[in-house]
Design goal:
Number of domains: 2
Strand content: 15-25%
CATH topology of the largest domain: Rossmann fold
CATH superfamily of the largest domain: P-loop containing nucleotide triphosphate hydrolases
Distance between the termini: 71 Å
Largest sheet: 8 strands, mixed
Number of strands: 15
Number of helices: 15
Strand order of the largest sheet: 8-9-7-12-6-13-14-15
CATH class of the largest domain: Alpha Beta
C-alpha cells in the first residue's frame, strides 16, 4: 500500500502526474494551478478536449483526495475559465518538476500574504516594527523611536496593530489620556456605522511624555469600560468588509485608516507596531502598507527558522517579493556585546538562503545555534555586502519599560547607550543626521 500524499508533496505530485499522462509539451500548455481552501488542486491547460479525459483520470488516481473532486484538469475554453486566466497573469510563477506553473492559492485566511507588496508609503513615511516572537522588545523600541523623533521636532503618530497583545496605549499614555476608541473599533465600525472625522479624532490620544507624540491604541477607553465585548470585537476586526458588493481586505482597510489619519496633515511620520508571528494581521505591516520594515529577533534558532519561512514565502510566492527586501532591515534585539560576529553571520546566512529544504543540525547547543539552509553539506554562500542588521543591546534597565512612571528610562545618555544603532538609523531615514 503506497503512503498517502501530504500537503508538501501534493503540488510536485500533481505536476508529475500531468507530465506522465500528457504526451505533449506541458510547459507549452501554460499550466495555471488552483489550490482551493482545503488544499485540493486543479489546473487549467491550453490543450485539446481529447486529452482531458485521460489527464483527469491520471491526476485523480495519483493524487486521491488532493485532486479537485470533479474534473481537476480543465481546458482554456471551459466555462468561467477566462476570468481565472486573467487573474493568473499576476500570479507567481513556480518551477516545479522542471515546469513553470502559475499558482493561484485560495485562502479563507491569510489572503493578504499572497498580494504584491506595496513599496511606497502614503503621504508621509511609515516604519513598521514586527517580530516572529513576542518578548523581544519590539514595542519598547518603537516607544523609544517615537520619543527620539519627537525630541527632534517631528510630529509622530504611533499605531498599535498588535490587537491581541496591545502595549502602546499603556506605555505611552496615562489612563486619562486614552482615547475613546482604537484600531479594533475602527475595523469594526468602518463596515457598519462608519468612520467620520469625529470618530477619527476619538481614536487618537495625545501623550504627555513629549509634545508631538500621538497614539492610536488597539483599544480605547470604551472597550475598557465594556471588557466583555473585547473578544467579540477582535473576532470581527480582521475580517474582510464588503463595500458596494466588493470585498475589502484587512490591509486595504488599514491603508484606508492610515490614509485618513495622514490626510489631516498633523503628522510627519507613522510608527506601526505589528503583531508577533505570521498571523493574517501581520501581513499588512510587513507587505501592505508601504512601510520600511524592521524585523526584530534575538540570536536564537526560533528567530532564524521563523524568518526563513517568511522570506522564502515572499521570495517564491509573492510577485515583486524581491523588490520588498529593499525596504527591510533586521534588528537584533537583546544583543550581547560578545555575539556580534556570530549573529551577523547568522543573519547573513538567513538573507542568503536559497530555495530548497530547510534543515537543522542534528544537535543544537549553546555554541551551535546556526541553522543550515541548504540541502547539502556545502557552506551557505554569504552575500558580498553584509545584510543590514541593527543591534539593540541587552539592558536590564529596560526589562520593565514604563516611561510614564519612570522617566529615567528616557534619559538621553541611557537611551543612546542601548538603542544607539536604531537611533542613528532613524536619523538617516528621516534625514535628521547632522
Amino acid at each position: 500500500m503506497k503512503p498517502p500524499i501530504r500537503f508538501d508533496d501534493s503540488l510536485p505530485q500533481f505536476v508529475a502526474s500531468l507530465r506522465a499522462a500528457y504526451s505533449g509539451d506541458l510547459a507549452a500548455a501554460e499550466p495555471i494551478v488552483i489550490r482551493d481552501f482545503e488544499g485540493r488542486l486543479g489546473v487549467i491547460l491550453d490543450i485539446t478536449e481529447a486529452d482531458l479525459d485521460s489527464l483527469n483520470s491520471a491526476v485523480t488516481e495519483r493524487l486521491g483526495p488532493y485532486a479537485r473532486p470533479e474534473d481537476p484538469v480543465r481546458g482554456r475554453n471551459a466555462t468561467g475559465v477566462s476570468r481565472i486566466v486573467e487573474e493568473a497573469r499576476t500570479a507567481p510563477v513556480l518551477k516545479i518538476g522542471g515546469v513553470n506553473v502559475r499558482l493561484l492559492d485560495r485562502r479563507i485566511v491569510g489572503a493578504d500574504w499572497m498580494v504584491r507588496p506595496v513599496l511606497e508609503p502614503g503621504t508621509i513615511p511609515r516604519i513598521a516594527f514586527v517580530s516572529i516572537k513576542g518578548g523581544v522588545g519590539r514595542s519598547t523600541a518603537l516607544s523609544i523611536a517615537a520619543t527620539h523623533l519627537a525630541q527632534a521636532g517631528l510630529r509622530v503618530l504611533t499605531v498599535d496593530l498588535d490587537l491581541e497583545a496591545p502595549g502602546l496605549g499603556a506605555t505611552l499614555l496615562k489612563p486619562e489620556e486614552l482615547p475613546t476608541y482604537g484600531v479594533v473599533d475602527w475595523l469594526v465600525e468602518n463596515g457598519l456605522s462608519g468612520t467620520d472625522g469625529t470618530f477619527r479624532a476619538d481614536c487618537i490620544g495625545k501623550s504627555s511624555l513629549l509634545d508631538g507624540i500621538s497614539v492610536v491604541p488597539a483599544f480605547g477607553s470604551q472597550t475598557l469600560a465594556h471588557p466583555a465585548n473585547a473578544l467579540a470585537k477582535i473576532a470581527r476586526a480582521s475580517l474582510e468588509d464588503m463595500r458596494n458588493g466588493t470585498p475589502l481586505s484587512l490591509r486595504d482597510q488599514l491603508q484606508e485608516m492610515l490614509g485618513s489619519f495622514e490626510s489631516t496633515g498633523d503628522y510627519d511620520v507613522v510608527l506601526i507596531d505589528g503583531r508577533a508571528g505570521l498571523h493574517e494581521t501581520t501581513a499588512a505591516p510587513v507587505l501592505g502598507l508601504g512601510a520600511k520594515v524592521l524585523l526584530f529577533g534575538i540570536n536564537e534558532p526560533q528567530t532564524f527558522q521563523g524568518y526563513a519561512f517568511l522570506l522564502a514565502h515572499i521570495r517564491e510566492r509573492i510577485p515583486g517579493g524581491t523588490d520588498w527586501e529593499e525596504n527591510a532591515w533586521f534588528v537584533q534585539a537583546k544583543a550581547d556585546p560578545g555575539d556580534a560576529e556570530i549573529a551577523r553571520e547568522r543573519f547573513d546566512a538567513l538573507w542568503s538562503m536559497e530555495e530548497g529544504p530547510l534543515a537543522q543540525p542534528e544537535r543544537l547547543g549553546p555554541d551551535d545555534l546556526e541553522l543550515v539552509w541548504a540541502d547539502n553539506d556545502a557552506p551557505t554562500a554569504l552575500p558580498q555586502d553584509p545584510v543590514p542588521v541593527l543591534r539593540i543591546l541587552n539592558d536590564e534597565r529596560y526589562r520593565s519599560f514604563n516611561p510614564v512612571e519612570n522617566r529615567v528610562q528616557l534619559d538621553e545618555r541611557l537611551v543612546r547607550s542601548t538603542f544607539g544603532e536604531l537611533l542613528d538609523w532613524l536619523d538617516e531615514q528621516m534625514d535628521l543626521a547632522k
